[in-house]
Design brief:
This protein has about 375 residues and is of the alpha+beta class. Helices cover about 25% and strands about 25% of the residues. The strands form six sheets. A four-stranded mixed beta sheet has the order 10-11-15-14. A three-stranded mixed beta sheet has the order 1-9-8. A two-stranded antiparallel ribbon has the order 2-7. Strand 4 and strand 5 form a beta hairpin. Helix 2 packs antiparallel against helix 3. The termini are far apart. Homodimer. One of its GO terms (cellular component) is cytoplasm. Pfam families: DnaJ, DnaJ_C, DnaJ_CXXCXGXG. It is found in: Cytoplasm.
Length: about 375
């Protein structure tokens, strides 16, 4: 039987790859050689030794730390140079079989993962809350009802009936998984799957809690009060820590998110922290000037409409909008003026209006003179009337 040299082995040469080879190139070279020299495929006695060297080379070059030792001139599998690998002393012909499974199937085939924990964190929950503009602007303490899973008070989350305990699964022996063995041209392939008896937990509940049926939690409706800060906007979410679903087995509850939906207001529309409304004033009031009383969200304000106010004019009331969510102060209130022109006039009103137009030189006949109708209209819009 061939013996190994005491000097560091050329792991790159064993796999037939360059020192700059990528991980994928190393894996492909290993797979190719493993198929060729596996004892089940190649019964030659030399193949077994070659197979050990191939496994050792793959173990080293697929591990960044061990590969760095090789690049520095060392041998991580030499005595005192690191943990023994598939090619080390005492290694059997299938000592590197796990590496073969990793290379061919991309994972630790047959590797024990351990049982799943019965206690797991709970899921987050979301609740829609509709509020009026007044409530989103100035804040409110709103009562809410939440349908979520809560801790079972009968078993305190254990899932077992009083005076009983969990039992180790007899099928998987507490591992949470069962293994099966298949023979292939590469040898025995060991695969693992979750135990169907204990669902991967490794334990069973011989006597489940009569209240929660072993889940450790029950569904119920809870009443909470959520404090809505002043200035929240439509679509914002408020987080209530650990007020969501209790996890299976009495696990840590998730969070509850309250999503704000602001109802449309009859008068005001909102853009950020500013409020907007529209007020219609008669043509005569816009021409002569007037005073308006505006009812804001929390007060009444009197504003002056100057004589000669034009359609589309806007009045601004500072700090009469929505309070800022972060910081101090408030947004503004914008009053948009619509000037109303009368649509029906009686004979006396029409006569007076025509007389007024004559005094202003605004009769239609006059507008057609001195440059024409469109010229006068241009002057009128430019403020030359």
């Amino acid at each position: 039987m061939r013996t190994r040299d005491a000097v560091a082995r050329d792991y790159y040469g064993i796999l037939g790859v360059d020192r700059e080879a990528s991980d994928d190139e190393i894996k492909r070279a290993y797979r190719k050689l493993a198929r060729r020299f596996h004892p089940d495929v190649n019964p030659d006695p030399e193949a077994q030794e070659k197979f050990k060297d191939i496994n050792a080379a793959y173990e080293v070059l697929s591990d960044d730390r061990k590969r760095q030792i090789v690049d520095l001139g060392g041998d991580p599998l030499a005595p005192g140079g690191g943990a023994g690998g598939p090619g080390g002393p005492g290694a059997g012909p299938f000592a590197g079989f796990q590496d073969i499974m990793d290379a061919f199937f991309g994972g630790a085939a047959g590797g024990a993962r351990g049982p799943r924990p019965r206690t797991r964190p709970g899921a987050d929950a979301i609740l829609r809350l509709e509020l009026d503009l007044q409530e989103t602007a100035f804040g409110v303490e709103a009562p809410i009802n939440v349908d979520t899973a809560v801790l079972c008070t009968t078993c305190s989350g254990a899932g077992t009936a009083a005076g009983t305990h969990l039992a180790t699964c007899e099928t998987c022996g507490g591992r949470g998984e069962v293994q099966s063995v298949q023979r292939t041209f590469l040898g025995q392939v060991v695969s693992a799957r979750p135990c169907t008896v204990c669902q991967g937990y490794g334990t069973t509940i011989p006597h489940p809690c009569p209240t929660c049926a072993g889940d450790g939690r029950v569904r119920t409706r809870r009443s909470l009060t959520v404090k809505i800060p002043a200035g929240v906007e439509d679509g914002m979410r408020i987080r209530l820590a650990q007020q969501g679903e209790v996890g299976p087995g009495g696990g840590t509850p998730g969070d509850l998110y309250v999503e704000i939906h602001e109802r449309p207001h009859d008068v005001y529309s909102r853009k950020g922290d500013d409020l907007h409304c529209r007020v219609t004033v008669p043509m005569t009031a816009a021409a002569l000037g007037t005073r308006l009383t505006i009812k804001t969200l929390d007060s009444e304000e009197t504003v002056d409409v100057k004589a000669g106010t034009q359609p589309g004019s806007t009045l601004r009331l500072r700090a009469r909008g929505v309070p800022h969510l972060r910081g101090t102060g408030r947004g503004d209130l914008y009053v948009h003026l619509d000037v109303r022109t009368p649509t029906k006039l009686d004979a006396d009103q029409e006569r007076m209006l025509r007389d007024f137009a004559k005094t202003r030189g605004e009769e239609v006949a006059e507008l057609t003179k001195q440059g024409g109708f469109f010229s006068r209209m241009r002057d009128a819009f430019n403020g030359h009337a």
